Amino acid sequence: MSTGAGHRVYRPGVSLVHQTPAHVKIVATLAFVVVVVTTPAEAYAAFGAYALLLAAALTVAGIPLAAAARHLVIEVPFVLFALALPFVAGGEQVQVWALSLSVPGLHGAWNLLVKATLGVLASLVLAATTTPLSLVQGLQRLRMPQLLVSIIAFMIRYADIVTAELSRMRIARESRAFVGRGPRSWPVLARCAGALFIRCYERGERVHLSMLSRGYAGRLLIGGDRAATRRDVAVAAALPSCALVVACAAWMLV
Known about the structure:
3% strand
C-alpha cells in the first residue's frame, strides 16, 4: 500500500498536528464530533465557537481556509436535504416573502447543516494531516476488527487506481475528438462505465492472485503506528476539550 503522500486531501507538513500519531487524532476527532452532535441546536453561539476552534486547528496545521472550504462540496447531499426540510415538514408555519415555511423544518435544517459542516471540517483536519497509510495504522492500533481494516486499506488503494483508470479513459476519448455533451453521448459514457467495471474487476483478480502467491492469509502486514507521548495527547485533546467546555456552557444557558 502506498504511503498516500500524494493524496489529494493530504497536505504534507511538519506542524504539531501532522506529528501527532494517527490513532490519537482519530479519537480526538470522534470526541469532537460527539460533542458537536450532542449540543442543542438552539445554542447558536456554541456553534460559532466550534467553527472558531476548527479554524484555529486548520491554521495550526497550515491548511488554508480556502482549501478547506473547497472540500465542503462533499456535503452537498446534506445541503439539498436540509433545504427541502422547511417545505415538507409539518407544524407551525412562517411566511417568508411568498413562501410558507415550517418552523420545525427550519430548525431541523439548521441543525443538520451546522453539525454536518462542522463534522466535515473536523474530518478534514484529520485527513489533511494524516496519510492514508497512517490512518490504517491508527485503526489497527485502536484494535479495529482486522477485516474492516483490510477493507478500508483496499478501498483507499483502489480509489486511486480507479481514478487513474478514469483519467486514462478520458484522455483516450478526447484524443478521438469525443465531446460529452447531450444525450447523444450517453451510450459512449455507458460503454466506458462498463469497460471500467470490467477492467477494475480483472485488476482486482490479478492483484488477489498475486497476494495469495506471496502468502496473503487475510491479514495485511501494514506495521504499527508509533506510541503516543504526553505532548501528543495534549495536542490532540486540545480541540475536544475546548469544545466540551463550550458545550457545557451551552447546556447551562439553554
